[in-house]
Amino acid sequence: MSLEMIFVLVMIIAMLTALLLELARPDMVVFSVVVIFLITGLLTPEEVLKGFSNQGMLTIALLFIVAGAVQKHGIIDQVMKQWLNKSKSVRGSMFRFFLPIPFFSAFLNNTPIVVAFTPVIKNWCEERGIAPSKFLIPLSYVTILGGTITLMGTSTNLVVHGMLLDFGLEGFSLFQLAIVGIPITMIGLLYLFTFGYQLLPNHLGFREQVTADSKEYIAEMTVQQGFPYINQSVQRAGLRELNGLYLIEIIRGKERISPVRSTTIIQEGDRLIFTGLISTIADLQNTKGLALETGSDLELEDLKNGNTQLVEAVVSHQSTLLDKSIKQSQFRSRFDAGVLAVHRNNERIKSKVGDIVLRPGDALLLLAGSDFIRNYQQSSDFYVVSSLATPTSLNDSRKKGWFSIGLLVSMILLVTIGWLSMFKAMTLAVFLLIVTKMITPEEAKKYIQFNVLLLIASAFGVGAAMTKSGLAAWMAKGLLSLGQPLGIIAILLLIYLLTNIFTELITNSAAAVLMLPIGLELATSLNVPYMGFAVIISIAASASFITPIGYQTNLIVYGPGGYKFKDYVKVGTPLSIIVMFVTVVIVNFVWF
């Protein structure tokens, strides 16, 4: 190994470690490595910038906008609700709901589909007393499988396609991946309806957990005559900065004051409603003139009034709230909402709410203003925003919704018959959406997940460094010496396993970018078609079922489904093994 190869290998190991330990946001970790390669002269500015102008990466940006426009008008949500309600049994509803999902995920980005359907499924399940955990992991898995059917089904396929074009090779056609995608989707659905269904947990949904634990969330104190701060502000009374507690509401006769501001005046007889770490309420009992109401009949649901509602929100990968405590992010003033509790790994974090540093996938229980859902339904800060009271729907014009869907279908047809490339079709679609005022330029910008694009573009730089330094060829040689005595099937299994391990531990796009140069070197060494390795890597990088962190859709349903990490391992491991063997057998039969 040369010094250059050793340096690149050390940097990649450091990058993987940082991603695994979540030392910073994934896009910033990978971007930092590319900056180091640039500063040390390993990559030229042109090589670094190549990822940012890659056709596959830019197509993903355009697809975010198109998918956002389709989701905005809520047509698919409404149709699926009606479709669900026609079935009488749980299995029948599951079968009815999941059959169309692969079709949607084959032509739309997976993330918006799961974001749109998670609240629909949760509310539908909870209205019928069914555990949402029986539906939400399958929702994520089915969208992942459906995304392997077409070139545009997932960002991973477009990234590999863009890299192939950069290497001067022919990329994927629109339905080339369907050779593998359709069989693994059918087998995956069969598994989830039978054996997988038995393995799915029967967890309480977030709403049921909240109802069951409501006494842990709220405490009530009454302001008596001896309270020294009567007719003074909340700030002056020292009730703004409490030890793990948050003054969420004041009940004054028939009047309810919420949210409580620092300038709100306290009066004798006020009922002060606190939430947060209720076990620390004893600290307040020592305050003269405050009496704890131990026999309070107030429930968490009673905090809602005409101006407030209980809301569940799931923190996204690209949220501006990450790596900051709730207090540091000034959550209350930014969103006009109070954080009652944070759930992580299906467990409530029992510490001072203001001191909790948020991570992607955290489920927040909020007491928010009546317009919170409307304002933040499409916010990049949250994956899912849904009321714990009643289902919400977006009230846009049905005509606009059908126009957006019709436009997407038209573009797919133009790509299928070869009149337009995927990039040109999506560029035209976005142009027409803006010209016809289906979406505004501001909305288009909001739909783009810039952190995902930075991650992908930066990962291209890492891939270029692996190729340029000779590390990709060295690793391919090592895999070849290991697998060649056992035959091509063994080599394909090794490539699949390595890619799949990377995607479970880091991210799907980064895994694909790291592995494709190795796959292309193997194809050259074996003198076999490169396309088989490209397909194997695309499928393996997408097929993330064993952990919630490898694929965004798994993380989106993590909190709302009330799942634990082991649930993904239990349900996802058999599916991952099935998909691996089916993929390897088909690729070997078709391309080798």
Fold and architecture overview:
- The chain is an alpha+beta fold.
- The chain folds into two domains: 12-206 and 396-592, no CATH class; 308-387, Alpha-Beta Plaits (2-Layer Sandwich).
- It is 56% helix and 10% strand.
- It has a five-stranded antiparallel sheet. It has a five-stranded antiparallel sheet with strand order 8-7-9-6-10.
- Residues 390-396 have low confidence and may be disordered.
Please summarize what this structure is.
With 592 residues, the chain is an alpha+beta fold. It is built from 27 helices and ten strands.
- Give me the count of strands: 10
Number of helices: 27
Structural class: alpha+beta
What's the N-to-C terminus distance? 31 Å
Strand content: 5-15%
- Give the CA-based shape: globular
- Percent of residues in helical segments? 55-70%
How large is the radius of gyration?
26 Å
Strand line-up across the major sheet: 3-2-4-1-5
Give start-end ranges of low-pLDDT stretches: 390-396
Mean of pLDDT: 82
Counting structural domains, the number is 2
What summary fits the major beta sheet?
5 strands, antiparallel
